[in-house]
Amino acid sequence: MKKIILATNNNNKLKEIRQMLEGSDVEVISLKEAGITKDVEETGTTFKENATIKAEEICKLTGEPVLADDSGLEVDFLDGAPGIYSSRFMGEDTPYSEKNKAIIEKLDGVEVRNRGARFRCVMALVFPDGRQFHTEGTMEGIIANEPAGENGFGYDPIVFLPEYGKTSAQLLPEEKNSISHRGQALREMIEIIRKEI
Questions:
Q1: 134 Cβ contact partners less than 8 Å away, ≥ 6 residues apart
Q2: 25, 39, 69, 70: which is the annotated catalytic residue?
Q3: Catalytic annotation on 108?
Q4: Beta strand ranges found along the chain (DSSP E)
Q5: What CA–CA distance (Å, rounded) separates 176 from 157?
Q6: Contact 89, 100 (CB under 8 A)
Q7: Which of 155, 194, 149, 195 is nearest to 171 (CA)?
Q8: Closest Cα to residue 156, out of 134, 137, 139, 178?
Q9: Which regions of the chain are under pLDDT 50?
Q10: Residue 35 CB coordination number (10 Å)
Q11: Beta strands 26-30 and 116-126: pairing type?
Q12: Which of 124, 3, 134 is nearest to 69 (CA)?
């Protein structure tokens, strides 16, 4: 069994990634399970930089291969915000229900054609010997007029996917994983993990 530490304290991300790796020969260990309490500060200016910073720091601490991702929501009308600040938008302790409501309010009266948005995810895999690999995925949608759906987490209830006629939060987990930004980046990363570990 190949072991990789996932550099996140987000249980939803951990669950999603473990679901996608089910049946593979890769075991994903959380920071908590690895006994790591360090909170890595994301000082990068891009998703790629932040993912790499997290992976490098945890790899140095543990001497193990580390997978990290940085992901977020980019809203065209808001010039790509909240972007890399998605989890910190309005404060890290602010519930996503309030963050989602605020984004919808900012787009009040904005025509559908100007409500474009996407989830973006960049993954970084860092090895103790210095090798690094990166993958990226995006899931395009539009900002809905109101939140809908109970599945998913974060901004999923407000990102409407026209080709499915649903928000990301209305998709079943398997459906979402097959098309999501994280799903795309992870599928590509799995191929790298199989070759490199």
A1: 48, 51, 52, 122, 123, 124, 125
A2: 70
A3: no
A4: 2-6, 26-30, 66-75, 116-126, 132-143, 159-161, 166-167
A5: 12
A6: no
A7: 149
A8: 139
A9: none
A10: 8
A11: unpaired
A12: 124
Kindly state the tokens that stand for 150. 């109970």
pLDDT tens profile 71-107: 999 999 999 999 999 999 999 899 999 999 999 999 9
> What separation in angstroms does the CA of 174 have from each of 22, 64, 170, 186?
12, 29, 12, 14
Query: How many CB atoms lie under 10 A from the CB of residue 43?
Result: 8
Note the pTM of the prediction, 2 decimals: 0.90
Q: How far is the C-alpha of 76 from the C-alpha of 117, rounded, in Å? A: 6
Q: What angle do CA 28, 34, 39 make, to 5 degrees?
A: 105
Q: Which two tokens stand for residue 125?
A: 């895999």
Could you tell me the two tokens for 114?
């100007």
- pLDDT at residue number 174: 86
Tokens 């992901």 belong to residue: 71
Contact 115, 125 (CB under 8 A): no
**Residue 92 forms beta bridges with which residues?**
none
Bridge partners of residue 139, in order along the sequence: 119
Helix axes 11-21, 181-196, angle to 10 degrees: 60
